[in-house]
Amino acid sequence: MPAVQPALDGTIPAPKIPAARRKAEDFETWIDEVWPVYVTVAATTRTWTFAEIADEHRLPEPPDSHQWGRLATLLKEAGYTRTAGWATSPRPTVHHSGVRTWKGTPAARRETAA
């Protein structure tokens, strides 16, 4: 067990669990939390991967890891995103496997400007 440094007042701080490691209870709750973040990113000209955005914004994991793909499909079908190419994943759990890169669509940028 790692040593814990007490605070100056002698209390022991609660363990820090990164939000990106938090797992949502159900798909609908998870979508409600992550959807606005990805819509905002889609309104930029940035090229990105889903893992990059999840890590940057400390988003929770979905109840099932396959639901990242469902999110990508829903955003694309809603007209917010399009595929841009391929990259290697920064997540060590997937051993640098290939992942899609994404860009926002002009419609996503117009919607934000409106």
Brief description of this entry?
By secondary structure, the chain is an alpha+beta fold.
Task: Write up what this structure looks like.
The protein is an alpha+beta fold and 114 residues long. The protein has one domain: Arc Repressor Mutant, subunit A (Orthogonal Bundle), CATH 1.10.10. Helices cover 37% and strands 15% of the residues. The chain has a 3-stranded antiparallel sheet with strand order 1-3-2.
List the helices and strands and how they pair.
Blueprint: H1 27-42, E1 47-48, H2 50-56, H3 67-77, E2 81-88, E3 98-104, H4 106-113
Antiparallel strand pairs: 1-3, 2-3
- Count of individual helical segments: 4
Taking the alpha carbons of the first and last residues, their distance comes to 53 Å
Number of strands: 3
Second-tier CATH architecture:
Orthogonal Bundle
Keywords:
alpha+beta; 4 helices; Arc Repressor Mutant, subunit A; elongated; three-stranded antiparallel β-sheet; 114 residues
